[in-house]
Structures are given as structure tokens and as C-alpha cells.
Specification:
With about 210 residues, this protein is an all-beta fold. It has strands spanning about 1-5, 10-20, 25-30, 35-40, 50-55, 55-65, 70-75, 80-90, 95-100, 105-110, 120-125, 125-135, 140-145, 150, 150-160, 160-170, 190-200. The protein folds into two domains: about 1-75, Histone H3 K4-specific methyltransferase SET7/9 N-terminal domain (Single Sheet); about 90-170 and about 190-195, Histone H3 K4-specific methyltransferase SET7/9 N-terminal domain (Single Sheet). It has a 17-stranded antiparallel beta sheet that branches. About 20% of the residues are buried.
Length: about 210
């Protein structure tokens, strides 16, 4: 069912309201029979999108409210979350940053609601990967991540004014004779501390000593 403007060819064109066969509804702008321009689309399952459309696809700026209570506000390209946007998850966590192909990808900040901790850094295909800072209430970690875990050189910085340098090392799996059928449990990288120093400037790109220290 459709009520609204049409062009000379009889296509939906201009502003209109439509109810789709599956029970979804759309109210907004059309061009040549397709949703294009600003509009609001209500899904039968309770989800809702309000924002820009281009030829029936979410494209431009828009806000999507998901049935589980989560919400994305930001850029869309061809129906995908792509560009810059903020996602509020159902558990209260938030991610603000870059997206590609519906996934967190690029630079972004993820805040864990339960602990107040923050991951500020790089993402690849939805996973924490690359240089980053993990900020907790009274200390933070600076280093690199791979597959969502810290790996390699980094340092912990404590609010009391000192740093612990070291590296995260991936332990070698120990084989046990009897339980060959069981899949190996994932092994967490282990922190190996090397030294404690006063606060030093640090960037993931240079491991130079600070001026006046060498």
C-alpha cells in the first residue's frame, strides 16, 4: 500500500508513506519509485532506521535502533555501517570511531561500561589490532595488539608516577599425552616485565630515549 506523491510516469516520487507486504513501513522521500532522500523505516521486529537513503539503500547519515536496544548513529554506504559512527551496545558499552563493511575498522575508542576501561587505538575487521592504549581507572597500558590481545613490547603507566616496561609473549602450548581429543585452550599472552622507570614520552613508532636522558 502506498499513499503519496507520484511523478508523470506514475512512479513513487516525492514524499510518501508505504506499508510493505512483510509488515514493515516507510515514510519519507522517493525518487523514481525508490526510497531516496530522508526517511524513516520501521521494521516489523521493532527495529527502526531514520536517515538518508539512496536507491533503496541506507546511504549517508542515519540512526539505526536495533531490537535488542542497541543503536548506531553515523555514516552508511550501500546499507553498510561505513565511515564514522557511534555504536551503543545493549550491555551499555560504546564504540566511537571508524567503520568499514559493518565492522569496527580504523581508529576508534571502545568504552567498557562495567569497568570504565577504555581501548583507544586501531581496529581491523572488528578486532583490536595495532598500536593502542588501554586505559583503566588508575593505570594504563600502551603497546600493540594482535587478534584482540596485547602482544610484543609495551609499558604500563601508573598514576603514582612510574612505568613498568616489558613485553607480552605468546607462551608455547604444552602437549599432554592423554587428552589428544580435546581442543587446546587459547593461551593468553604473558607479561614479562623488564624495568620500572619514571614517566617517559612514548609513541608506538619510536623507541628513542627522551631528550636529556641519553
Amino acid at each position: 500500500e502506498y499513499e503519496g506523491d507520484r511523478n508523470a510516469e506514475g512512479e513513487r516520487h516525492g514524499f510518501g508513506k508505504a506499508r510493505l507486504p512483510n509488515g514493515d513501513t516507510y515514510e519519507g522521500e522517493y525518487e523514481h519509485g525508490l526510497r531516496s532522500g530522508r526517511g524513516t523505516y520501521r521494521f516489523r521486529n521493532g527495529a527502526l532506521y531514520t536517515g538518508d537513503y539512496l536507491q533503496n539503500k541506507k546511504h549517508g547519515k542515519g540512526v539505526f535502533f536495533y531490537p535488542d536496544g542497541s543503536k548506531y548513529a553515523g555514516d552508511w554506504v550501500h546499507d553498510q555501517r561505513q565511515g564514522y559512527g557511534e555504536y551503543l551496545y545493549a550491555n551499555g558499552d560504546t564504540y566511537t570511531g571508524e567503520w568499514a563493511d559493518n565492522k569496527r575498522h580504523g581508529q576508534g575508542t571502545y568504552v567498557y561500561k562495567d569497568t570504565g576501561s577504555k581501548y583507544v587505538g586501531t581496529w581491523v575487521n572488528g578486532i583490536q589490532e595495532g598500536p593502542a592504549e588501554l586505559i583503566h581507572l588508575n593505570h594504563r597500558f600502551m603497546g600493540r595488539f594482535l587478534n584482540g590481545k596485547p602482544l610484543g613490547r609495551g609499558k604500563f603507566i601508573f598514576d603514582i608516577g612510574c612505568e613498568q616496561h616489558g613485553e607480552y609473549i605468546q607462551p608455547v602450548q604444552e602437549k599432554e599425552e592423554e587428552e589428544e581429543d580435546e581442543p587446546p585452550l587459547p593461551v593468553e599472552p604473558k607479561w614479562k616485565a623488564s624495568e620500572i622507570t619514571r614517566l617517559t614520552p612514548w609513541s608506538p613508532h619510536d623507541e628513542e630515549p627522551a631528550p636529556g636522558e641519553g
